[in-house]
Amino acid sequence: MLLEFRCPLPYCVEDPNIGYLYMVMEANLEATGGGEGVEWEKNEPYDNTDGHLTLDLDGYSIPKNKGQYTYKKYLVGSKVPSWMAKILPRSSMTLVEEAWTAPDYRFAVITNQFLDRKKFHIVLESKILNHDRGESDNVFQLTDSEKNARYVDYYDMCDVYKSEKIPECEDLRKLKLESVPNSPLTPGWYHSWDEKNVSCHYWLLHIDFKYFGFQTLGENMVYNQQCYMNRQVERQMVAAIDKWHGLTMQDIRKLEDENMAALKEKIKSKEIAMAFTAGVN
Predict the structure, then answer these.
(1) Interval 152-176 mean pLDDT
(2) C-alpha triplet 205, 209, 214: angle, nearest 5°
(3) Tens digits of per-residue pLDDT, 92-103?
(4) Cis before residue 184, ω within 30 degrees of 0?
């Protein structure tokens, strides 16, 4: 399954990754507690401009660039669907995410240590483009066959997806944000805004669940979960803009170190967190 997700954002900034990485740290903490959530094990620079890094996954390769590498485990035992809990031992309810984030491109691979990574994996690519309303047709340089196979999902942050319940603190139809002059937003806002004030977050998800009898069920489960999570990610990123706007990448690296330490303590708490952020770096 190939899904392309496009979400217009109400700002253009020099380094769009700052907002995304800040949001991720907050989401990590919200999703952690009671022995479940995020274990952040590695956060270090990488340089693969010469292509020496390898990936044990047919059809994919680590991008030839440099940036920040992260390795995380998502312990999701109580949050998986009942049908999956019946076929997998509880000890296997851990997703592993490796991500390579460069200034203009993010590439991540999500697998499960119990399942064969060649049969089950999610590969996620993402880019944030300034001065873009989500109308660029081939951001990820797909082949014609890949373009024909992909499903494109547009997201207006003023929409509600299915039974989604949006917290007041994330409802961009009501929030007045200092860093977004025309807030609160109204449905279809990005159609009328000057393009110089609009950017777009493009996501490309390659979803594979190649287990006989479970492929359609598994891929649809991942697809539905990603639809909810990606929408939540975008809302939280914009809702927090007054906190992260003006931060530098050096500030983010310092906050990440603090976040890694805080997660180690929070996962020991007794209360299980209700948030679910697997697939969010």
Answers:
(1) 89
(2) 135
(3) 678 899 999 999
(4) yes
